[in-house]
Amino acid sequence: MDRCVSMRADNESPRKISRDDTGGRRLNVVSLFSGAGGLDVGLAAAGFDLLFENDINSYCCKTLEAAGKILPQMKDAEIVCGDIKNISGTRILQHVRALGKEVDLLAGGPPCQAFSVFGNRKGREDARGQMVDEYFRILGEIAPPAFVFENVFGLLTVQNGEVFKLVKEKLAHPTDTLEYDIRVFRLNAVDYGVPQFRDRIIIIGSRLGTNVTDIPKVAFVNPKEGQLRYRTVRDGLRNLPPPNARSPSIHTGRVHGDAVIHRYDAMEPGARDVHTRINRLDLDRPSFTIICGSEHSGGKGHVHPTEPREVTPRESARMQTFPDWWPFYGVGRHAIRQVGNAVPALLAFAIGNEIRSQIFGLKKIAFKRGVRFLGQEHLFQ
Length: 381
Ligand SMILES: C[S@@+](CC[C@H](N)C(=O)[O-])C[C@H]1O[C@@H](n2cnc3c(N)ncnc32)[C@H](O)[C@@H]1O
Description:
Bound molecules: S-adenosylmethionine
Strand content: 5-15%
CATH class of the domain at 2-218 and 342-380: Alpha Beta
Radius of gyration: 20 Å
Distance between the termini: 45 Å
CATH topology of the domain at 2-218 and 342-380: Rossmann fold
Number of strands: 10
């Protein structure tokens, strides 16, 4: 298992981020299945310090290493690049204790393919089915006061709900002697200021006697209509220059042939392309769910709302509320997969903020402050 070597990433110049941006007492988090760190950076905005991160994908690990050079909240994180099966709770705790700290929160979401096989007769023999078991194992080994487990909403219905029942049981009782109070939330990122429909299951566990009972939607009142106004693709893309020959690779799109350009050009906003099964974004609506496509197909973005091309990974990252300075490592499908797999940072901020206040009794961080931390001011202009 390698500890990643830090490499210069292809990002825009990072803003200086002060450790005081979140104010108050710090909380410590161990992150599993960290990906490109969408969940992690949102938790950092909510006042958490990352102490440990793991992913098997070397591009993700290099992104996390580069992020650790920018974000003070990640500077102490040990980033282990390799299979989670080879990581023990003891190893994680050794690092945490060497820093003189304790774990407050375990965070992460096993890859969702896990649930198509988990619970099958063959589930435990299939490598993907074992990923969720690895989360339970590490939860049992480090026994943090609280955890957050994220996944696709389809988890609710796999095998008529049997899989979900099993997941809840294991999270409530990861070992014979460990017990968590668990709360299940079905959240849509669009309700939390994210310019994208993205439906997710969040399970929060606590053994402190307090737990999160509500994750209030962020109500942006439209003064004209007096109702909740979703952020749109227009808000998400605001102030982002279109890609050009000098754009960094993360903001460079795929090259299309004439036939594809003609097809995309003829699509109405919201329409679906029958060949690629991607949608044309509508400037005045939230984005369709950002996806990543298969490892082999080169990744998938949606069709740009006003130009006959697919969006760049940076444009998709805007829909996922990653800051523009987030240093995605790699080009093409590597970047698209990191972006498409992530928890939107603003959604993670909202979840972290409720854990911070409702479980740990700390003052909430103002929404505006989280927005500023994550460089999302463009959404609210
Ligand atoms: C849904 S993504 C996580 C996204 C992340 N929470 C975020 O917000 O950016 C799941 C991650 O699990 C990683 N993964 C899959 N199998 C793994 C394994 N055996 N060990 C460690 N990580 C693994 C994948 O590389 C992928 O990045």
